[in-house]
Design brief:
Helix 14 crosses helix 17 and helix 15 (about 405-410) runs parallel beside helix 22 (about 575-585). About 35% of the residues lie in helices and about 20% in strands. The strands form seven sheets. Strands 2, 3, 4, 5, 10, 18 and 19 form a seven-stranded mixed sheet that branches. A five-stranded antiparallel sheet has the order 12-11-23-22-21, sandwiched between helices. The radius of gyration is 35 Å and the shape is elongated. Strand 18 and strand 19 (about 560) form a beta hairpin. The protein is an alpha+beta fold. The longest helix is centred in the N-terminal third of the chain and has 31 residues, at about 10-40.
């Protein structure tokens, strides 16, 4: 027998196992101690070091898409400039909060130190411009016009300019090719705000802190398409800022190109002629007030009648949109938002409201037909219309005897429409209405007045149709104020307030009488009237006016923005034809616009028009002129500019002459800018580039060229 334990292990084996167990337990104990040391004793220290190794995102903004006119001429594009920017985050970490660095930077850029410091301060309700209204974490542009020498000084001395960069960057540009700026149509850009970033966070078009976004005009409407997608590269960096490696890269996508229906040549003509008309009329004396006309603002719209596309849109006063590039100065911002400048940021074509005056009479004539009055029946055009002891005078107190509604448009006879408005008010029940038809008010709304036209520009206003519903709601909102202010037998204002307090919610007879000629509380915009007159021209369709015509992707794929309608005129084809005939008589001998269209080739290019002179309490009269051909509609207005044909007539005639290439005696010049609408899109090449024709600045006709041809017979009417 051998001496072997039951386990089968010899004493030597057992000793080895014990030693191994001791080693294992020692290693486990050492490992546990190390873990305790790392995670418990020095855990905070190592956590801080780990946090210093983080991911840094580098954003390269996408190049914003160009905005082109209908033929490919750039209205807004980009140019490469040397942009000097400051990192506010880095500067604020310095003991002096970056004051020394910014002072040195000001010396290099030939700027005042305070001006540089103002550029990077954050905007709030208490901080005047200039200031930064974008994210405080992104580089803030100090100047977009650095010279090469200035940029080299900054880049060669990084130790003197920590937190300052000087890089070539694509910067927005509004070239005003041909002389037309289209400022209010294009709009401008500014940095995205934190609130906008949060609101867009979960949408299909989120914002990055580096984004510049459209603030007005088509820059705002088509911001998503124009902005593109920035390239974002993520790097892992340590606490010293050293790159440890690239973790992710999202390729950027350039912004799409927007083709508009604007014709840069016609835009330049429209802007010049509107400004010139206002300049001319300021030298004329207003017979009513005895003062020179103020002509403080104006607008003109040129529109395709069959599509609603906007060919030109000008508003005065205007401004240079380039002042917003790189951040607007405090002086410019104060100028643009002050009463003295009359708010040039407003687009009067879609935001300017005024009574329509006599161009409203196409609505009243339509309402009369709907109410049962015959278009070709005879109505007395007397010198005045009397109602309850009050007399409502015709323009210049002239009468024309019995005339049709078409002739009432031709002569712009107020008294015909006074009588129709009054009769309909009486038929509806007067002060005690019973199921009133309200044909005049209903027709106005169905002409698109009192509501937005749905143009693809932001902040359009709706105007006002003072029907029974509006009267009631307006009275409820102002009753308390009127009752406090009003005084029986007091001043004119106090007496009006007293009467309004008692019965301001009632639709009075004089309300309907004034409404019939577009006066009283009526407010319309030029774009509304252009849309309505275009509908008469095209057979009754109220189109949504559009500036955008097509979006071209970076790959060259075109997506057309097709015309859309929002309604039909509330009259039949015969009434539209009757209106058209009456409006043609306005430019024929004897019509109120005839003296401005002497020599126009009516047989070749049929033209229709309606003049209007609107009265505004406390101001001089507002000039209106609405016109159309088979292809185009032009509406112009000049606030405090006098009569429709007198102030606006020459400018509208010159715009038509330039478009159709005509002289004042109707002869062709061979230089027509746009004798018919631009149907085709510009040529787009496979690489996405678009042909851009060269255009020359508009040269206005000489005084000799503007002289109308002499005609035999009595001089034409010159009113309304």
């Amino acid at each position: 027998m051998t001496n072997i334990p039951e386990t089968g292990r010899t004493p030597r084996v057992q000793i080895r196992l014990v030693i191994i167990q001791i080693l294992v337990f020692s290693l486990l104990f050492t490992l546990g101690g190390r873990l305790w040391y790392l995670q418990i004793r020095n855990g905070h220290e190592y956590a801080d070091e780990a946090r210093s190794n983080h991911v840094q995102r580098v954003v390269q903004p996408a190049v914003r898409g160009d905005i082109l006119d209908a033929r490919g001429v750039p209205l807004a594009d980009n140019e490469t400039r040397l942009v000097v920017s400051a990192s506010r985050t880095e500067l604020m970490r310095m003991k002096d909060r970056g004051k020394a660095v910014l002072t040195r930077l000001a010396g290099v850029l030939d700027m005042k130190p305070q001006d540089v410091m103002d550029k990077i301060r954050l905007c709030d309700s208490q901080t005047p411009k200039p200031c930064w209204n974008g994210s405080p974490y992104q580089p803030i542009p100090v100047t977009t016009e650095a010279t090469t020498q200035q940029a080299l000084q900054i880049r060669e001395r990084p130790e003197d300019f920590p937190g300052i960069t000087a890089e070539p960057t694509a910067v927005r540009r509004y070239p005003a090719v041909g002389g037309g700026r289209a400022a209010q149509v294009l709009g401008y850009l500014s940095p995205v705000t934190d609130d906008e970033i949060q609101k867009a966070k979960n949408t299909d078009s989120p914002h990055l802190r580096s984004d510049q976004v459209g603030r007005s005009g088509i820059e705002r409407t088509y911001d998503k398409e124009l902005r593109g997608k920035a390239q974002v590269t993520s790097y892992e960096v340590d606490n010293l800022g050293r790159v440890m490696g690239e973790t992710k890269s999202d390729p950027g996508i350039a912004g799409s190109t927007l083709i508009t229906s604007i014709d840069a040549r016609v835009q330049a003509v429209a802007e010049f002629e509107l400004a010139e008309a206002m300049k001319v009329v300021r030298n004329e004396t207003d017979n009513i007030t005895g003062r020179k006309y103020e002509a403080d603002s104006g607008a003109v719209v040129v529109m395709e009648t069959k599509t609603g596309r906007v060919v030109a849109m000008a508003s005065q006063p205007d401004y240079d949109p380039n002042v917003w590039v790189g951040g607007i100065s405090g002086q410019d911002y104060a100028k643009f938002t002050s009463k003295d400048s009359n708010y040039p940021l407003l687009n009067r074509a879609i935001q300017g409201q005024a009574p329509a005056g006599s161009i409203f009479k196409v609505v009243s004539a339509s309402a009369a037909v709907r109410a049962g009055y015959g278009f070709d029946d005879k109505y007395n055009c007397s010198a005045s219309y009397n109602m309850g002891g009050r007399s409502f005078a015709n323009f210049e107190s002239k009468g024309h005897g019995p005339i049709t509604l078409g002739e009432a448009l031709k002569f712009s006879c107020n008294t015909v429409f006074y009588a129709l408005g009054h009769k309909e008010w009486q038929r509806d029940g007067g002060l005690e209405p019973k199921n009133p038809h309200d044909w005049f008010y209903k027709t106005a709304r169905e002409f698109g007045l009192g509501s937005e036209t749905h143009i693809d520009l932001p902040n359009e206003v709706s105007g006002r149709i003072p029907d029974r519903h509006w009267k009631q709601s307006f009275w409820e909102a102002n009753k308390d104020s009127w009752c406090k202010q009003g005084k029986k037998g007091g001043t004119y204002v106090e007496q009006i307030a007293y009467e309004s307090c008692l019965e301001g919610n009632q639709l009075k007879a004089y309300d309907s009488i004034n409404f019939a000629i577009g006066q009283g509380d009526v407010l319309v915009t030029p774009i509304q009237m252009a849309t309505a007159y275009a509908a008469i021209s095209n057979g009754g369709t109220l189109y949504n006016p559009t500036v955008g015509k097509a979006v071209i992707s970076p790959q060259g794929k075109a997506e057309e923005i097709r015309p859309q309608a929002h309604g039909k005129l509330p009259v039949d084809a015969k009434t539209i034809a009757d209106l058209d005939k009456g409006l043609r008589m306005v430019v024929e001998p004897g019509g109120t616009a005839a003296w401005r269209f002497i020599g126009w080739p009516l047989d070749k290019i049929p033209l229709r028009a309606k003049t209007g002179t609107a009265q505004v309490y406390g101001k001089q009269t507002t000039s209106w002129l609405a016109t159309y051909t088979d292809d185009f509609t032009i509406v112009m207005t000049i606030s405090q500019g006098g009569t429709g044909s007198g102030a606006s007539g020459p400018a509208v005639r010159n715009i038509y002459n330039a478009m159709y290439g005509l002289t004042m005696d109707g002869k062709e010049t061979g230089k027509a800018l746009l004798p018919r609408p631009q149907a085709q899109l510009p040529t787009v090449h496979p690489d996405g580039t678009i042909d851009s024709p060269e255009i020359k600045p508009y040269v206005p006709p000489s005084p000799e060229e503007l002289a109308p041809p002499a005609l035999a017979g009595p001089p034409p009417l010159r009113h309304d």
